[in-house]
Backbone:
Protein backbone atom coordinates (compact mmCIF):
# COMPACT_ATOMS: atom_id res chain seq x y z
CA UNK A 1 0.00 0.00 0.00
CA UNK A 2 1.45 3.39 -0.99
CA UNK A 3 2.18 5.82 1.81
CA UNK A 4 2.38 9.63 1.71
CA UNK A 5 5.71 9.60 3.48
CA UNK A 6 7.47 6.74 1.73
CA UNK A 7 10.49 7.32 -0.49
CA UNK A 8 9.91 6.88 -4.21
CA UNK A 9 11.74 7.34 -7.48
CA UNK A 10 10.19 9.52 -10.15
CA UNK A 11 11.93 9.24 -13.53
CA UNK A 12 15.20 8.59 -11.73
CA UNK A 13 14.73 11.33 -9.10
CA UNK A 14 14.94 10.08 -5.52
CA UNK A 15 12.04 11.64 -3.59
CA UNK A 16 11.74 11.44 0.19
CA UNK A 17 7.93 11.50 0.20
CA UNK A 18 4.99 12.13 -2.13
CA UNK A 19 4.59 15.86 -1.46
CA UNK A 20 5.92 18.59 -3.73
CA UNK A 21 6.08 22.36 -3.76
CA UNK A 22 4.12 23.40 -6.84
CA UNK A 23 5.73 26.22 -8.84
CA UNK A 24 4.88 29.43 -7.02
CA UNK A 25 5.96 32.83 -8.29
CA UNK A 26 7.60 34.40 -5.24
CA UNK A 27 8.01 37.88 -6.75
CA UNK A 28 11.48 38.07 -5.21
CA UNK A 29 13.90 37.86 -8.17
CA UNK A 30 15.59 41.05 -9.35
CA UNK A 31 14.79 43.07 -12.50
CA UNK A 32 16.93 40.73 -14.63
CA UNK A 33 15.28 37.64 -13.21
CA UNK A 34 18.30 36.81 -11.08
CA UNK A 35 18.19 35.05 -7.74
CA UNK A 36 18.23 37.39 -4.74
CA UNK A 37 19.33 36.40 -1.21
CA UNK A 38 15.69 36.68 -0.10
CA UNK A 39 14.44 34.34 -2.80
CA UNK A 40 17.26 31.89 -2.14
CA UNK A 41 16.46 31.85 1.59
CA UNK A 42 12.74 31.39 0.92
CA UNK A 43 13.39 28.32 -1.21
CA UNK A 44 15.96 26.85 1.17
CA UNK A 45 13.49 27.23 4.04
CA UNK A 46 10.92 25.28 2.03
CA UNK A 47 13.55 22.60 1.32
CA UNK A 48 14.19 22.33 5.06
CA UNK A 49 10.46 21.98 5.61
CA UNK A 50 10.24 18.48 4.15
CA UNK A 51 8.81 18.72 0.60
CA UNK A 52 10.37 16.11 -1.69
CA UNK A 53 10.53 18.07 -4.95
CA UNK A 54 10.56 21.84 -5.06
CA UNK A 55 9.65 24.01 -8.01
CA UNK A 56 10.55 27.69 -7.66
CA UNK A 57 8.18 30.09 -9.39
CA UNK A 58 7.88 29.94 -13.17
CA UNK A 59 11.00 31.04 -15.04
CA UNK A 60 10.93 33.02 -18.28
CA UNK A 61 12.76 31.49 -21.23
CA UNK A 62 13.39 34.52 -23.46
CA UNK A 63 14.93 37.84 -22.45
CA UNK A 64 12.14 39.73 -24.26
CA UNK A 65 9.19 38.22 -22.47
CA UNK A 66 8.26 38.14 -18.83
CA UNK A 67 4.61 38.07 -17.76
CA UNK A 68 5.19 39.25 -14.19
CA UNK A 69 7.75 41.15 -12.13
CA UNK A 70 10.12 39.38 -9.76
CA UNK A 71 10.17 36.13 -11.72
CA UNK A 72 13.28 34.02 -12.15
CA UNK A 73 14.86 34.07 -15.61
CA UNK A 74 16.54 31.18 -17.42
CA UNK A 75 17.01 33.02 -20.72
CA UNK A 76 20.80 33.39 -20.65
CA UNK A 77 23.85 31.38 -19.59
CA UNK A 78 24.64 34.15 -17.11
CA UNK A 79 21.64 32.94 -15.04
CA UNK A 80 23.31 29.58 -14.38
CA UNK A 81 25.89 30.21 -11.58
CA UNK A 82 23.40 31.70 -9.06
CA UNK A 83 20.94 28.91 -9.76
CA UNK A 84 23.71 26.35 -9.28
CA UNK A 85 24.17 27.71 -5.75
CA UNK A 86 20.42 27.39 -5.17
CA UNK A 87 20.19 23.78 -6.39
CA UNK A 88 23.23 22.82 -4.28
CA UNK A 89 21.53 24.34 -1.23
CA UNK A 90 18.26 22.51 -1.88
CA UNK A 91 20.06 19.19 -2.42
CA UNK A 92 22.00 19.66 0.83
CA UNK A 93 18.62 19.87 2.57
CA UNK A 94 17.48 16.52 1.14
CA UNK A 95 15.05 17.72 -1.55
CA UNK A 96 15.07 17.47 -5.32
CA UNK A 97 14.49 20.65 -7.29
CA UNK A 98 12.94 21.27 -10.70
CA UNK A 99 12.45 24.38 -12.80
CA UNK A 100 9.15 25.34 -14.39
CA UNK A 101 9.74 26.83 -17.84
CA UNK A 102 7.24 29.41 -19.03
CA UNK A 103 6.36 31.75 -21.82
CA UNK A 104 3.56 33.94 -20.51
CA UNK A 105 2.06 35.59 -23.57
CA UNK A 106 -1.09 37.66 -23.23
CA UNK A 107 -1.78 36.69 -19.61
CA UNK A 108 0.12 39.73 -18.42
CA UNK A 109 -0.37 43.20 -17.04
CA UNK A 110 3.37 43.74 -16.69
CA UNK A 111 4.54 46.48 -19.07
CA UNK A 112 2.46 45.11 -21.96
CA UNK A 113 2.74 48.32 -24.00
CA UNK A 114 5.32 48.27 -26.74
CA UNK A 115 6.65 44.80 -26.12
CA UNK A 116 6.27 41.85 -28.44
CA UNK A 117 3.80 39.37 -26.96
CA UNK A 118 3.17 36.17 -28.86
CA UNK A 119 0.06 34.02 -28.89
CA UNK A 120 -1.32 31.21 -31.01
CA UNK A 121 -3.86 33.70 -32.43
CA UNK A 122 -4.63 37.40 -31.99
CA UNK A 123 -7.40 36.78 -29.44
CA UNK A 124 -7.74 39.13 -26.44
CA UNK A 125 -7.02 37.45 -23.13
CA UNK A 126 -10.24 37.49 -21.06
CA UNK A 127 -8.34 38.32 -17.86
CA UNK A 128 -6.10 41.11 -19.21
CA UNK A 129 -7.58 42.11 -22.59
CA UNK A 130 -4.05 42.01 -24.01
CA UNK A 131 -4.09 41.01 -27.68
CA UNK A 132 -1.00 39.01 -28.66
CA UNK A 133 0.63 38.81 -32.05
CA UNK A 134 -0.23 35.54 -33.79
CA UNK A 135 2.94 33.48 -34.09
CA UNK A 136 4.42 32.61 -37.47
CA UNK A 137 5.91 29.13 -38.04
CA UNK A 138 9.33 30.77 -37.60
CA UNK A 139 8.27 32.31 -34.27
CA UNK A 140 7.13 28.89 -33.05
CA UNK A 141 10.43 27.30 -34.09
CA UNK A 142 12.43 29.97 -32.26
CA UNK A 143 10.30 29.59 -29.10
CA UNK A 144 10.73 25.80 -29.19
CA UNK A 145 14.49 26.39 -29.35
CA UNK A 146 14.28 28.90 -26.46
CA UNK A 147 12.57 26.27 -24.27
CA UNK A 148 15.24 23.71 -25.18
CA UNK A 149 18.11 26.10 -24.45
CA UNK A 150 16.46 27.05 -21.16
CA UNK A 151 16.16 23.37 -20.23
CA UNK A 152 19.86 22.92 -21.06
CA UNK A 153 20.74 25.76 -18.69
CA UNK A 154 18.47 24.29 -16.00
CA UNK A 155 20.28 20.96 -16.27
CA UNK A 156 23.68 22.66 -16.09
CA UNK A 157 22.51 24.61 -13.03
CA UNK A 158 21.77 21.31 -11.29
CA UNK A 159 17.98 21.15 -11.55
CA UNK A 160 16.81 17.53 -11.42
CA UNK A 161 14.00 18.08 -13.92
CA UNK A 162 12.11 20.73 -15.83
CA UNK A 163 8.38 21.27 -16.06
CA UNK A 164 6.58 22.77 -19.04
CA UNK A 165 4.02 25.32 -17.82
CA UNK A 166 0.90 24.52 -19.84
CA UNK A 167 -1.79 25.75 -17.51
CA UNK A 168 -3.65 28.83 -16.23
CA UNK A 169 -3.99 30.70 -19.54
CA UNK A 170 -0.28 31.12 -20.30
CA UNK A 171 1.01 30.49 -23.80
CA UNK A 172 1.35 26.70 -23.89
CA UNK A 173 -2.10 26.26 -22.38
CA UNK A 174 -3.40 28.72 -24.98
CA UNK A 175 -2.18 26.44 -27.76
CA UNK A 176 -4.26 23.61 -26.29
CA UNK A 177 -7.33 25.80 -25.92
CA UNK A 178 -9.75 26.33 -28.82
CA UNK A 179 -10.69 29.66 -27.24
CA UNK A 180 -7.20 31.08 -27.74
CA UNK A 181 -6.02 28.90 -30.63
CA UNK A 182 -7.92 29.73 -33.83
CA UNK A 183 -5.15 28.61 -36.17
CA UNK A 184 -5.87 26.66 -39.33
CA UNK A 185 -2.32 25.38 -39.86
CA UNK A 186 -0.48 22.39 -38.34
CA UNK A 187 -0.64 24.00 -34.86
CA UNK A 188 -4.43 24.48 -34.68
CA UNK A 189 -7.68 22.56 -35.16
CA UNK A 190 -7.34 18.95 -34.08
CA UNK A 191 -6.02 18.12 -30.63
CA UNK A 192 -2.95 16.51 -32.24
CA UNK A 193 -2.25 19.87 -33.87
CA UNK A 194 -2.93 21.91 -30.73
CA UNK A 195 -0.43 19.64 -28.94
CA UNK A 196 2.22 19.98 -31.64
CA UNK A 197 4.19 22.74 -29.90
CA UNK A 198 4.33 20.60 -26.74
CA UNK A 199 5.56 17.63 -28.78
CA UNK A 200 8.24 19.79 -30.42
CA UNK A 201 9.41 21.31 -27.12
CA UNK A 202 9.62 17.88 -25.51
CA UNK A 203 11.65 16.53 -28.45
CA UNK A 204 13.93 19.60 -28.43
CA UNK A 205 14.56 19.27 -24.68
CA UNK A 206 15.35 15.57 -25.13
CA UNK A 207 17.80 16.48 -27.92
CA UNK A 208 19.60 18.97 -25.65
CA UNK A 209 19.42 17.16 -22.29
CA UNK A 210 19.30 13.52 -23.36
CA UNK A 211 16.49 10.96 -23.25
CA UNK A 212 16.73 10.25 -19.54
CA UNK A 213 16.52 13.83 -18.22
CA UNK A 214 13.04 14.17 -16.66
CA UNK A 215 10.54 16.49 -18.32
CA UNK A 216 7.20 17.06 -16.57
CA UNK A 217 4.20 19.16 -17.48
CA UNK A 218 1.62 21.16 -15.52
CA UNK A 219 -1.58 21.12 -17.52
CA UNK A 220 -5.11 22.46 -17.27
CA UNK A 221 -7.69 19.78 -16.55
CA UNK A 222 -10.04 22.16 -18.39
CA UNK A 223 -10.13 25.91 -18.91
CA UNK A 224 -13.52 26.07 -17.17
CA UNK A 225 -14.72 28.80 -19.52
CA UNK A 226 -17.00 28.80 -22.55
CA UNK A 227 -15.11 27.78 -25.68
CA UNK A 228 -12.04 26.75 -23.70
CA UNK A 229 -10.21 23.43 -23.32
CA UNK A 230 -12.66 20.73 -22.23
CA UNK A 231 -11.94 18.00 -19.72
CA UNK A 232 -12.28 15.38 -22.47
CA UNK A 233 -9.71 17.13 -24.64
CA UNK A 234 -7.38 17.65 -21.71
CA UNK A 235 -7.56 13.94 -20.93
CA UNK A 236 -6.76 13.17 -24.55
CA UNK A 237 -3.83 15.63 -24.50
CA UNK A 238 -2.49 13.82 -21.43
CA UNK A 239 -2.74 10.51 -23.33
CA UNK A 240 -0.80 12.03 -26.24
CA UNK A 241 1.91 13.41 -23.93
CA UNK A 242 2.07 10.09 -22.10
CA UNK A 243 2.60 8.34 -25.41
CA UNK A 244 5.50 10.71 -26.06
CA UNK A 245 7.10 9.69 -22.76
CA UNK A 246 6.38 12.69 -20.53
CA UNK A 247 7.73 11.89 -17.06
CA UNK A 248 4.99 13.36 -14.88
CA UNK A 249 1.70 15.25 -15.28
CA UNK A 250 0.56 17.83 -12.71
CA UNK A 251 -3.16 18.50 -12.97
CA UNK A 252 -4.37 22.04 -12.39
CA UNK A 253 -7.04 23.99 -14.27
CA UNK A 254 -8.82 27.20 -15.12
CA UNK A 255 -7.57 30.72 -15.54
CA UNK A 256 -8.08 33.90 -13.62
CA UNK A 257 -11.66 34.85 -14.16
CA UNK A 258 -14.54 36.65 -12.55
CA UNK A 259 -15.74 33.41 -11.03
CA UNK A 260 -13.56 32.56 -8.03
CA UNK A 261 -14.68 28.95 -8.17
CA UNK A 262 -13.01 28.43 -11.54
CA UNK A 263 -9.82 30.24 -10.51
CA UNK A 264 -6.81 27.93 -10.24
CA UNK A 265 -6.04 29.60 -6.92
CA UNK A 266 -9.49 28.89 -5.51
CA UNK A 267 -10.19 30.92 -2.36
CA UNK A 268 -11.57 29.88 1.03
CA UNK A 269 -10.81 26.19 1.08
CA UNK A 270 -11.90 25.32 4.54
CA UNK A 271 -14.57 22.67 4.22
CA UNK A 272 -13.45 19.21 3.08
CA UNK A 273 -15.70 19.38 0.01
CA UNK A 274 -13.76 22.41 -1.28
CA UNK A 275 -10.39 20.71 -0.89
CA UNK A 276 -8.31 18.97 -3.59
CA UNK A 277 -10.57 20.57 -6.16
CA UNK A 278 -9.15 18.97 -9.33
CA UNK A 279 -9.37 15.49 -7.85
CA UNK A 280 -11.94 14.03 -10.29
CA UNK A 281 -9.89 15.16 -13.30
CA UNK A 282 -6.61 13.89 -11.83
CA UNK A 283 -8.26 10.57 -10.99
CA UNK A 284 -9.41 10.14 -14.59
CA UNK A 285 -6.01 11.07 -16.03
CA UNK A 286 -4.22 8.75 -13.62
CA UNK A 287 -6.41 5.87 -14.84
CA UNK A 288 -5.60 6.68 -18.47
CA UNK A 289 -1.83 7.24 -18.48
CA UNK A 290 1.27 5.47 -17.26
CA UNK A 291 3.15 8.65 -16.23
CA UNK A 292 2.82 9.56 -12.54
CA UNK A 293 0.01 12.05 -11.93
CA UNK A 294 0.41 14.91 -9.47
CA UNK A 295 -2.66 16.64 -8.04
CA UNK A 296 -2.46 20.33 -7.15
CA UNK A 297 -5.07 22.77 -5.85
CA UNK A 298 -6.54 22.88 -2.38
CA UNK A 299 -4.63 19.99 -0.85
CA UNK A 300 -5.18 20.75 2.83
CA UNK A 301 -5.58 17.48 4.71
CA UNK A 302 -2.84 14.83 4.88
CA UNK A 303 -5.35 12.15 5.81
CA UNK A 304 -7.43 12.94 2.74
CA UNK A 305 -4.29 12.74 0.58
CA UNK A 306 -3.47 9.34 2.06
CA UNK A 307 -7.03 8.23 1.32
CA UNK A 308 -6.52 9.29 -2.32
CA UNK A 309 -3.30 7.28 -2.46
CA UNK A 310 -5.22 4.29 -1.15
CA UNK A 311 -8.18 4.55 -3.51
CA UNK A 312 -6.98 6.21 -6.74
CA UNK A 313 -3.99 6.05 -9.07
CA UNK A 314 -2.85 9.60 -8.21
CA UNK A 315 0.81 9.29 -7.13
CA UNK A 316 1.88 12.72 -5.81
CA UNK A 317 0.42 15.91 -4.34
CA UNK A 318 1.63 19.46 -4.82
CA UNK A 319 1.24 22.40 -2.45
CA UNK A 320 1.55 26.13 -3.02
CA UNK A 321 -0.18 28.56 -0.63
CA UNK A 322 0.15 26.31 2.40
CA UNK A 323 3.94 26.39 2.00
CA UNK A 324 3.93 30.20 1.76
CA UNK A 325 2.16 30.21 5.08
CA UNK A 326 3.92 27.25 6.66
CA UNK A 327 7.10 26.18 4.81
CA UNK A 328 7.57 23.25 7.21
CA UNK A 329 4.04 21.89 6.70
CA UNK A 330 5.32 18.60 5.26
CA UNK A 331 7.45 17.92 8.34
CA UNK A 332 4.47 18.83 10.56
CA UNK A 333 2.21 16.46 8.67
CA UNK A 334 4.77 13.72 9.00
CA UNK A 335 4.74 14.23 12.78
CA UNK A 336 0.96 14.60 12.94
CA UNK A 337 -1.23 13.89 9.88
CA UNK A 338 -4.18 15.55 11.61
CA UNK A 339 -2.38 18.91 11.71
CA UNK A 340 -4.57 21.57 10.09
CA UNK A 341 -2.63 24.01 7.88
CA UNK A 342 -2.94 27.59 9.05
CA UNK A 343 -3.37 28.85 5.43
CA UNK A 344 -6.75 30.59 5.06
CA UNK A 345 -6.71 30.46 1.23
CA UNK A 346 -7.40 34.19 1.37
CA UNK A 347 -5.04 34.90 -1.56
CA UNK A 348 -3.60 37.92 0.20
CA UNK A 349 -0.21 36.24 -0.34
CA UNK A 350 -0.17 37.95 -3.75
CA UNK A 351 1.72 40.92 -2.37
CA UNK A 352 3.66 43.50 -4.41
CA UNK A 353 6.45 43.35 -1.83
CA UNK A 354 6.96 39.62 -2.40
CA UNK A 355 4.60 36.82 -1.73
CA UNK A 356 4.26 36.29 1.97
CA UNK A 357 1.46 35.06 4.20
CA UNK A 358 -0.81 37.78 5.52
CA UNK A 359 -0.46 36.20 8.95
CA UNK A 360 3.29 36.91 8.87
CA UNK A 361 3.04 40.49 7.69
CA UNK A 362 4.20 42.86 10.36
CA UNK A 363 1.61 45.51 11.12
CA UNK A 364 2.81 48.93 10.02
CA UNK A 365 3.07 51.54 12.82
CA UNK A 366 -0.41 52.83 13.57
CA UNK A 367 -2.12 49.84 11.91
C1 LIG B 1 1.50 33.52 -5.08
C2 LIG B 1 1.24 32.43 -6.07
C3 LIG B 1 2.08 32.28 -7.16
C4 LIG B 1 1.88 31.23 -8.09
N1 LIG B 1 2.78 31.04 -9.11
C5 LIG B 1 2.65 29.96 -9.94
C6 LIG B 1 3.66 29.66 -10.90
O1 LIG B 1 4.70 30.31 -10.98
N2 LIG B 1 3.43 28.60 -11.71
C7 LIG B 1 2.32 27.82 -11.60
O2 LIG B 1 2.17 26.86 -12.36
N3 LIG B 1 1.38 28.06 -10.67
C8 LIG B 1 1.53 29.10 -9.84
N4 LIG B 1 0.61 29.30 -8.84
C9 LIG B 1 -0.47 28.33 -8.65
C10 LIG B 1 -0.05 27.25 -7.65
O3 LIG B 1 1.08 26.52 -8.07
C11 LIG B 1 -1.18 26.25 -7.40
O4 LIG B 1 -1.51 25.63 -8.62
C12 LIG B 1 -2.42 26.92 -6.79
O5 LIG B 1 -2.05 27.92 -5.85
C13 LIG B 1 -3.34 25.94 -6.08
O6 LIG B 1 -2.65 25.21 -5.09
P1 LIG B 1 -2.79 25.56 -3.51
O7 LIG B 1 -4.23 25.40 -3.13
O8 LIG B 1 -1.88 24.54 -2.84
O9 LIG B 1 -2.33 26.95 -3.31
C14 LIG B 1 0.80 30.34 -7.93
C15 LIG B 1 -0.05 30.52 -6.81
C16 LIG B 1 0.18 31.52 -5.89
C17 LIG B 1 -0.71 31.64 -4.69
Residues:
Amino acid sequence: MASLFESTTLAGMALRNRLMRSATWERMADEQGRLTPRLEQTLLTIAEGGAALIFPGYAFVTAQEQPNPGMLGIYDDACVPDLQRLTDGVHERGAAVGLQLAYGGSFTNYRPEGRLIWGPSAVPHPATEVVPQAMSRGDIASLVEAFALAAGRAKRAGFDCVQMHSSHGYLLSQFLSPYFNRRDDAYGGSLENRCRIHREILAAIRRVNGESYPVLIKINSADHMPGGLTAADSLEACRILDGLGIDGIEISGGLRSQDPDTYFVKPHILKPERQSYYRPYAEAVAEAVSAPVILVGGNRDARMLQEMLDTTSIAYFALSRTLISEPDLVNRWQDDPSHQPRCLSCNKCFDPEGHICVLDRKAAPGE
Q: What stands out?
A: The chain has one domain: 8-360. The CA atoms of residues 177 and 229 lie 5 Å apart.
